């Protein structure tokens, strides 16, 4: 099963599109990464897929269902979760309360919420240890882990990850990518955008390069590891 993007054109105004006819296919149980120079439209693509931006044209299909133009809350019910760029924890709320926010679509079923919390604490022991701590007291890496845990609370099938390592020191980047690797092994479809290109290529199965809002290159990640320097030179 897959996430398929066909001919997607989108932007923040209809007069000035950021994306122009982008095509992409991401498969279940794999990490598909999108790389490209600053301003290429990588984060814009994730926002358009999740419904924060309405496509001017093109289609998005998720596991055989057309989801083009759905609202973000509808995308959640379709099994798509989105890790936004930058911090999104609520610092004055506890870890447990932040996790419960990830259960919004099942909030009326308390048993499912409690089961989701139990799974999260089993998968993320550090979150279990700090469940009653204020989220603002966590380290940067712990806050990122909390955000990742929160978007998986309702067992989505697809994760859109936007700059998961931004602002983190190298040791914490390693922790975050270990968790992304675990999510890949668990069978999630992962569409990844991150400024740490070398790290993304270590975990990715397939790569798409965007340049000026359009497809440039694509292929298996192994092919890009050997010619990354040449590709980056094209961006300068």
Automatic annotation (TrEMBL):
Keyword Ubl conjugation: no
GO biological process, one term: L-amino acid transport
Keyword Nucleotide-binding (UniProt): yes
Any Pfam family the entry gives: ABC_tran
InterPro entries according to UniProt: AAA+_ATPase, ABC_transporter-like_ATP-bd, ABC_transporter-like_CS, BCAA_Transport_ATP-bd_LivF, P-loop_NTPase
Domain ABC transporter residue range list: 3-236
Keywords, ordered alphabetically: Amino-acid transport, ATP-binding, Nucleotide-binding, Transport
Cross-referenced SUPFAM superfamilies: P-loop containing nucleoside triphosphate hydrolases
GO-annotated molecular function: ATP binding; ATP hydrolysis activity; branched-chain amino acid transmembrane transporter activity
Region forming the signal peptide: none
Gene3D superfamilies assigned: P-loop containing nucleotide triphosphate hydrolases (3.40.50.300)
Assigned protein family: Belongs to the ABC transporter superfamily.
PANTHER family to which the protein is assigned, alphabetical: HIGH-AFFINITY BRANCHED-CHAIN AMINO ACID TRANSPORT ATP-BINDING PROTEIN LIVF
Name this polypeptide is given: ABC transporter ATP-binding protein
Protein's organism: Hypericibacter adhaerens
């Amino acid at each position: 099963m897959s996430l398929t993007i066909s001919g997607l054109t989108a932007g923040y105004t209809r007069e000035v599109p950021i994306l122009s006819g982008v095509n992409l296919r991401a498969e279940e149980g794999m990490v598909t990464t999108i790389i490209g120079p600053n301003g290429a439209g990588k984060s814009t693509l994730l926002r358009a897929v999740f419904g924060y931006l309405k496509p001017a044209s093109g289609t998005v299909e998720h596991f055989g269902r057309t989801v083009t133009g759905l609202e973000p809350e509808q995308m959640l019910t379709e099994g798509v979760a989105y890790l936004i760029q930058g911090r999104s924890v609520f610092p004055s709320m506890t870890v447990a309360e932040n996790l419960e926010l990830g259960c919004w679509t099942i909030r009326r079923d308390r048993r499912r919420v409690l089961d989701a919390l139990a799974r999260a604490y089993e998968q993320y022991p550090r979150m279990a240890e700090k469940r009653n701590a204020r989220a603002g007291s966590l380290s940067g890496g712990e806050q990122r882990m909390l955000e990742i845990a929160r978007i998986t609370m309702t067992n989505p099938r697809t994760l859109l990850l936007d700059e998961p390592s931004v602002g983190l020191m190298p040791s914490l980047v390693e922790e975050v990518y270990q968790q992304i690797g675990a999510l890949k092994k668990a069978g999630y479809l992962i569409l990844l955008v991150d400024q740490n290109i070398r790290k993304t290529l270590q975990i990715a199965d397939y790569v798409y390069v965007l340049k000026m809002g359009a497809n440039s290159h694509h292929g298996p990640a192994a092919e890009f590891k050997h010619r990354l320097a040449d590709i980056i030179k094209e961006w300068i």
